[in-house]
TrEMBL record:
InterPro entries: AmpC-like (IPR050491), Beta-lactam-related (IPR001466), Beta-lactam/transpept-like (IPR012338)
Record GO terms (molecular function): hydrolase activity
Signal peptide: 1-21
A Pfam family: Beta-lactamase
Positions of the Beta-lactamase-related domain: 51-366
Domain of life from the UniProt record: Bacteria
UniProt keyword terms in alphabetical order: Hydrolase, Membrane, Signal, Transmembrane, Transmembrane helix
Annotated transmembrane regions: 499-519, 540-566, 572-593, 605-626
PANTHER family per UniProt: BETA-LACTAMASE-RELATED DOMAIN-CONTAINING PROTEIN, D-ALANYL-D-ALANINE-CARBOXYPEPTIDASE/ENDOPEPTIDASE AMPH
Natural source organism: Glycomyces mayteni
Name by which UniProt lists this protein: Serine hydrolase
Length: 637
């Protein structure tokens, strides 16, 4: 998921929080899934299903085009193109390249496992043995390739340089070694999706193989499989550049520029549906083999156990590059991918020898439409061709009340000024009277959901397949894992109160600033005396501090919008906003002096009360700035 989609999810989550605050009624639970007999997984049947399903999806959601591949029974069943790649140009599954985004990470993981298989890499050795630069650690534990491939290395998120709309060939080492994200979790303990971690694994491939990452992928993955219409290169080679689909905000919008991924191993792949079908078959053990069967099985199996993850191991986990996405009792591994404009998903059924890949070239009119489209398509595929039931029984006496509360995501900005976004992307869990828990917006689907407890640390979606694992320490919930690579972390009350307190404080300061000239005009028209000269200097300084505080928060809003829109705010702009913020915080000094002076000269309760309220407002804004690193010398993001 890109920065832009993090922002979209944050906005939707904020709406969900408001909805939850207005009432505690549970959303309606979906009807339990009743399995039917499987339909024949044949080319004719799959084509009929796609024809019934995809055109309507694209039209309803404002998506220009889609590319699809389905494999089964040891062969490619179909590759299809729907809609357009450019005005007047239909999507051709054999010719049109799409951008699968983070599905690229599976290619990177496969490359790592080739070198593990060859004895050149050790999954459990500290990565310092393979790097030519030092990674700053906050924990003494080894940081391994196993952690990098399973999103448990503990890195926070970074936005700067994630995706650009213009650029040139990326220097992978520079992108990784320059201002890396902070390690905020102990390795192996807290799933937290990380582009940086996967890209670091890709750089290790480059270092150990002795060739640039893109060249290694071409020589060892793409060429052996005959994927001659695919590449990690940015910009694309001349013979492919003219064949890549345009990307769109929505079907009615203008075409957008080719996107440059700042850390290519994590998301730079461009590929046709035909080529993706070749990759899927190889991963299923058909045709040309990139890995031995035992190594493929290792890739499909959970990377970490309970001795590392604790209670989190109860839920679906990350494998070495794949997400566990089991459906209807069938083993499924998968991976999604997003750029700004392309949105994709891939599912493999290792035991059933089948797979499906879909990629959309537009975000759609609703901003997050493709989240539902992709999950719906994967669900339909499972129900149609691999129906079944996953047995589970609710336990007696749940601990729903323990889970109720406000949470933020482990995949966030913990040590930078963007940490303030936590306040706008919270997840609310409500305990229901019947012992279940409810989400107004499930963090994985952004749809309403109800869960019931099916184990001491495990909760299952009512009428669905999704699972949550809960870690409880000292009688308190310390994390809830969902979707294998993401953890919900409890947000304490003090932090939750920061937003309403700061909004109230800004309102007080703004009112005071507006009242100042209004009061002067009123007194002039009424010919009433103004305040005396006592403390005039301090009044002026307090007003300056109030203006700086208001302007600083407005400036931060602009900086954040630029950063999340992938338009890098300059260091000069950020420093200028910090100067305003500091001036506002220093205004606490004249505010205190003014208050003391008013009390000493018995200025009256109105004057004293006004100064106290202003002092508290300045303090609230200053506290917000300190809590969310707005005054930090480090302006990384």
């Amino acid at each position: 998921m890109t920065a832009r989609h993090l922002a979209a999810a944050a906005a939707l989550a904020a709406v969900a929080v408001l909805a939850t605050a207005c009432g505690s009624a549970a959303p309606a639970a979906p009807d339990p899934h009743v399995p039917d007999a499987p339909e024949a997984l044949t080319a004719a049947n799959v084509d009929a299903w796609l024809d019934e399903t995809l055109p309507g999806m694209l039209e309803a959601e404002g998506i220009a085009g889609a590319s699809v591949a389905v494999v089964g029974g040891g062969e490619v069943l179909t590759t299809r193109g729907f809609g357009t790649a450019a005005p007047g140009t239909p999507v051709d599954p054999a010719d049109t390249l799409f951008r699968p985004g983070s599905i690229s990470k599976v290619f990177t993981a496969t490359a790592v496992m080739q070198l593990v298989e060859a004895g050149e890499l050790d999954l459990d050795a500290d990565v310092a043995a393979y790097l030519d630069f030092e990674i700053e650690r906050n924990y003494p534990d080894d940081l391994t390739l196993r952690h990098l491939l399973s999103h448990t290395a503990g890195f926070e998120e970074r936005v700067a340089g994630l995706i650009g709309l213009d650029g040139e060939e990326v220097d992978l080492r520079a992108a990784l070694a320059t201002d890396p994200p902070e390690q905020v979790f102990r390795p192996g303990t807290t799933p937290s999706y990380s582009n940086y971690g996967n890209a670091l694994a890709g750089y290790i491939v480059e270092r150990v193989s002795g060739v640039p990452f893109e060249e290694y992928i071409e020589a060892n993955l793409l060429q052996p499989l005959g994927m001659d219409s695919s590449s990690f290169r940015q910009p694309l080679p001349a013979d492919l550049a003219g064949r890549v689909s345009e990307g769109y905000d929505d079907a009615g919008g203008p075409a957008q520029p080719f996107e440059y991924v700042g850390t290519p191993p994590a998301g730079a792949l461009s590929a046709t549906a035909d080529d993706m079908a070749k990759f899927m078959l190889s991963q299923l053990g058909v045709g040309t083999q990139l890995l031995e069967a035992a190594t493929r099985e290792q890739m499909f199996s959970p990377a970490l156990e309970a001795d590392s993850l604790g209670a989190f191991a109860e839920a679906p986990r990350m494998t070495l590059g794949w997400f566990q996405e089991d459906q209807n009792g069938h083993r499924v591994v998968g991976h999604g991918g997003d750029t700004n404009f392309f949105h994709s998903h891939l599912n493999l059924y290792p035991e059933d020898g089948a797979g499906i890949y879909v990629s959309f070239n537009s975000t759609g009119t609703s901003g997050t439409a493709t989240i539902g489209l992709r999950s719906g398509l994967m669900r339909d595929f499972a129900d149609r061709y691999f129906p079944g039931e996953t047995a589970s029984t609710a336990v007696e006496g749940s601990n729903a009340e323990l889970l109720a509360g406000t949470y933020h995501s482990s995949r966030g900005f913990h040590s930078t000024f963007l940490s303030a976004l936590d306040l706008f992307s919270t997840t609310e869990i409500t305990a229901l009277d019947d012992g279940r828990i409810a989400f107004e917006a499930d963090p994985g689907t952004l749809e309403p959901a109800v869960y019931e407890q099916v184990g001491p640390d495990l909760w299952r979606e009512v009428g669905g397949e999704r699972l949550l694992a809960v870690r409880v320490e000292g009688g308190e919930v310390t994390g809830i894992v969902h979707d294998a690579a993401f953890t919900l972390l409890p947000m304490d009350v003090e932090r939750r109160l920061q937003l309403p307190l700061t909004i109230g404080a800004l309102a007080v300061l703004l009112f005071g600033l507006l009242a100042w000239p209004a009061g002067a005009l009123y007194r002039k028209l009424r010919r009433r005396p103004g305040p005396g000269p006592e403390g005039r200097r301090w009044r002026v300084l307090v007003r300056i501090a109030a203006a700086c505080s208001v302007l600083a928060i407005a400036g931060w809003a602009a900086v954040v919008m630029l950063a999340m829109g992938l338009q890098d705010p300059s260091a000069a702009l950020i420093r200028a906003v910090q100067v305003l913020q500091l001036a506002g915080a220093l205004g606490l000094v004249p505010a205190v002096v003014r208050l003391v002076g008013e009390i000493r000269r018995r200025a009256g309760w109105r004057a004293v009360t006004g100064t106290v309220v202003t002092l508290l407002a300045l303090g609230a804004v200053a506290d917000f700035a300190i809590e969310f690193q707005l005054l930090s010398p480090n302006i990384s993001y």
